[in-house]
Automatic annotation (TrEMBL):
This is Uncharacterized protein. The lineage of its organism: Bacteria, Bacillati, Bacillota, Bacilli, Bacillales.
C-alpha cells in the first residue's frame, strides 16, 4: 500500500485514511474494538503467547497498538536467573519475540524482533509477593522487519497470515524508509533529536508515532 502525501499529512494529524471497514468510519472506538478482536484471536493460538498495549504506553497518543508475541514452547527464552534477596527469592526470565505495530489510522502494520522480561518475587513459603513485566518493544525506522532468528520463519508466516486475514497489510521496509516529500513536524519520541531538528522524517514517522 502506497499512501499519497495528503493521506500521510492526515495521519500526522491523527486522521484515519483507510478505505476498508472500520478505517473508513469516523469512529475511533470501532477501530479499537477491531484491533482487540485481532488480539483476542491471537490469544487463542496454541503457538503464541500474546500481550498488547492499548493504553498509549500509559500517556500521550500512540498512532498504533503494540502487540508482543512469544512462543509457548519456551524456545525463545534468552536467559533465566534466580537469586536470593533478604528472605525472598527472585526469579527473572528474558524472552525474545516479535513486536507488531497495528496502525489506528490505516489498515497497515509493521514488525520487528523485540524482548520481554518477567520478574517474580517469592517468599519462603512459596507465596508470590509481586510480578513485573518489562518490554523492549520500540520499533525504530532503522530496525524493521527482522525476526529473532531463522527458526521463526514458520511461526512468522502463521502469525502474518492470521493478521492479514483481517485486511491488515504489512508495509515493506524500503517504503517505510522513504523520506517524506513535504515539510512537516511530527512530535514523536521515536525519532532522534537530530532528525527532529532538521525535519528529516520518513514515511514510517508519519504512520507510526507516539506523542508524549
Amino acid at each position: 500500500m502506497i499512501f499519497t502525501s495528503d493521506q500521510l499529512q492526515k495521519m500526522i494529524k491523527g486522521q484515519r485514511v483507510g478505505e476498508s471497514y472500520p478505517y473508513n468510519q469516523d469512529d475511533e472506538g470501532l477501530i479499537e474494538n477491531f484491533i482487540k478482536r485481532i488480539y483476542y484471536q491471537l490469544k487463542k493460538s496454541r503457538v503464541f503467547h500474546c500481550e498488547a498495549d492499548f493504553e498509549h504506553f500509559g500517556s500521550g497518543y500512540a498512532s498504533f497498538v503494540c502487540l508482543f508475541l512469544t512462543l509457548k514452547n519456551g524456545t525463545n527464552v534468552m536467559a533465566k536467573r534466580e537469586y536470593a534477596a533478604k528472605q525472598n527469592t527472585i526469579f527473572e526470565t528474558d524472552l525474545e519475540g516479535i513486536c507488531v505495530y497495528i496502525s489506528r489510522l490505516a489498515p497497515v502494520a509493521v514488525f520487528n524482533r523485540g524482548e520481554y522480561g518477567f520478574r517474580k518475587v517469592v517468599n519462603q513459603s512459596g507465596k508470590v509477593l509481586s510480578e513485573q513485566q518489562t518490554y523492549n518493544t520500540w520499533l525504530l525506522r532503522n530496525e524493521l522487519n527482522e525476526l529473532p532468528d531463522k527458526s521463526w520463519q514458520w511461526e512468522w508466516q502463521q502469525l502474518k497470515k492470521q493478521i492479514e486475514e483481517y485486511g491488515i497489510l504489512f508495509l515493506e521496509e524500503d517504503y517505510l524508509k522513504n523520506s517524506l516529500s513535504f515539510q512537516t513536524e511530527i512530535p514523536t519520541i521515536l525519532v532522534d533529536k537530530h532528525d527532529h531538528d532538521l525535519g528529516h522524517y520518513q514515511n514510517f514517522d508519519a504512520i507510526f508515532y507516539w506523542e508524549d
